[in-house]
What does this fold into?
Amino acid sequence: MFPLKSLPLAITLACSTAFMSPAWSAVGADEAARLKTDLTPLGAEKAGNKDGSIPAWTGGHTTAIPGFRNGGKRADPFAADKPLLQITAKNMDQHADRLTDGVKAMLKKYPDSFRVDVYPTRRTAAAPQWVYDNTARNAVKAELKDLVPSNAYGGIPFPIPKSGAEAMWNHSLRWRGEAWHVAVKGIQGTGDGKHVVTTVASGDFQMPYYFKDGSPEKFDGQFWSIRLINSGPPLRAGEGVVGREHMVGDKTQVWAYITGQRRVRKVPNACCDTPTPASAGISMFDQTDVFNGRLDRFDWKIVGKKEMLIPYNGNKLLATPEAKALDKHHLASDAMRWELHRVWVIEATVAAGKRHLAPKRRYYLDEDTWIAVLADHWDANGQLWQMGFSNPVVMPDLPATTSPGMFGFYDLISGAWYYDGAMNDSAEQYRIMPRYSDTVFTPEALTGEGVR
It folds into this structure.
């Protein structure tokens, strides 16, 4: 068992970005060379920590999972691992420095059911060599101008970030494949412990930013595409959403097919704290994948880097049947795997002249993958309101450790919660696809999907 000792911030930076910020320059060649020495190709610290509880990165997990076929169920390659430690409301104070405010609030709110099972840390993150090569190029070429990346393509844009906004773009532009298909559910948990299915959907996703044959010169800024078609629940069967996300927020476009009107409508203001049609209005646009979308509502600051306990290598949850994965008030603790990892702590405060339902937020980005794995949200009264979460999964066939969906949030005030991208019972879990035609992600194609 490893000791969970308090660790001061490894890095304390006063870097922040304000709305209409000046350009941040790329790093110099000498600093970028660290991606081939003491840093991993994606920008994490290659070495382990002092006590060995975080091991060194040695290339990630690229060994095929026995019996896996593309599109099928994804098993847990670490099913034989046993928890090293269980953290509950009774012993949480001993480990408080490695728990987010949201996790501590959940332990206190649900002392009889919510716990953190700590497993051995496995640094499984990996990517193809061409992604590593593009990341090295981005390090010396990419810039952030008015909160928008320029001259970045096909890799982590800012592997050695100098600002909070750069780190958040690393999350949004993280490696998760070129194109994929999922069969998912959205499930709302009510404050009194009921589960309500809000969405049963077939989803197609694509990242033009990661087209292998592309280049910064050819890339037009549209980095993420989505099409979701609902087959349930009955009230929502036949609905659909198409989105094309652009680095310049004003150029992002989202359309929804409304069955009652039998027509496609463009969704106005498809960003920020606007409710998403894909979640039946339960979740905000920028809660997708813990954070998604434009950055100009907030000022962003790197608080530092810290060793924290986060959900990780979550194939265990993916392999758990839905009935056993859902507790009354949260995901079942028995289905979760937590590990100790270094994370970038990024704080967001609402920018001058802007508004947001959660005017203060804190994000925890895994250093190896850049996934925003956890988040804390405070409301306008300064009260801790929500805990956002994601569940990174090992996919050696990509290769990657990435979040295939399986994200959501807990409302720490009302007790309600939301689990999006649930694919526990799906026969098909994250099928890697050949590149889709661009016409798939158009309102015209969405019109053709309408069934009533």
